[in-house]
Amino acid sequence: MLIDCSDLIAENRPHCGQGVAVTDVDGDGTLEFLVTGTGTANRVLKWNGQQLVDTTDPALLDATGQTVCLIAADIDGDGREEIYACNQETETGQADRLFAPFGARWLDLLTQPDNAEIAETIHGQVAACLDRQGRGRYGFVVAQAGVPLALYELDSRGRLVDSAEEAGLDLALDARAMVALPLISERMDLFVQVDGADNALFRNLGDGTFEDTAERRGVADPRQHGRGLAVLDANGNGLFDLLCGAWQGSHRLFLQRAGGGFSEEAPSDLSLPSHLTSVLAADFDNDGFEELLFINHGQPNRLFALRHEGWLEIEAGDAVEPRGLSTGAAIADIDGDGRLELLINHSGTHQPLALFKAPPNPNGWLRVQPLTAAGAPARGAVVTCTIGNRTQRRALCAGSGYLSQMEPIAHFGLGEARRVDSIEVHWPDGSVALIHAPPINRLITVPHPPE
Question: Cα 316 to the chain's mean position, in Å?
């Protein structure tokens, strides 16, 4: 299914890293990969038309930061995404960073005097972005070991404040992955995958506050060692489901029922325990159905596809990486050819980055990029693509499946179809846009509807 394209990464030297994120770092309208370095510098990889080249701004290198997770979102409503970096706590490592773009330079907001009290104590292990009130301005939900979740937002004076208690998110959770999207409500909800204790499913009550409904809805799943998390409509019923991977535990596929409850229905082969670090859902071959990729640390990766109404393991091709010490991974169509690239980072020992994609095929595709009113990616927006009597749904990634964040674009494979009936975009504030018969085999940018 996937072929090795790692030779397209210029100067792909062995290094030790954790997460991967995708955002428009330089503000030119195209996406780049952000790759964390643990004990080595972070990297920004940009497609120059022939290969991925390192274009890292010196401020983002953060070689002493021990970065494990990167998350991007527009927190100040200026149309460009800020970058939150979770830095693991070590004797020499720095606290977390919050990089904000100011023209051509980047500034760490956590080094500013007004934010000093917050900055002194933050060593996040995973993060997500959340537009809890649908204003197009995001906050960063940050999990640290042994302390309640934090929700860092900007107040009216431009200072960082922790709004977690006000929002009802201030639970102490040993989180390993988070996703934020309209999962069980019309606004952005938050699902938190936990290591060794109950998961949390925070339902957005519509006024910027949340309630934990995980146990009531059947996704608490206590005592699991959660590691990887992906969202998809696994059975085509129009509701988002949760694929939850575990470290040396059974993997789960929670299918959502009408009314917001979930039932665990992972096939036995898919649920087999492994040294899992990440799971991804993506349509790599553009056949119109997402594949499920299980990324393992020191064990072969596994790929599943929907065949005859069931999830069956298929050949992963070069992406099996039998000896890869894989950790975080992200997907993006980084070269603009309509097929997704998969970038995998490695930890434990120094290994080069790995880049994969499906071989060329005649299948059609469509990519949809909803924007906020300010022109930033509308992370958490939901896009529905309708072809005949079948629909596909995608939510723009606002979380970290495990240390990583996917591209802020809804990617749809179309298979043999040569016409799309409609696409419908739902923003986190409830706004809706409907586009009839959009052109295919291209990226469509959808601005936020005027008020």
Answer: 21
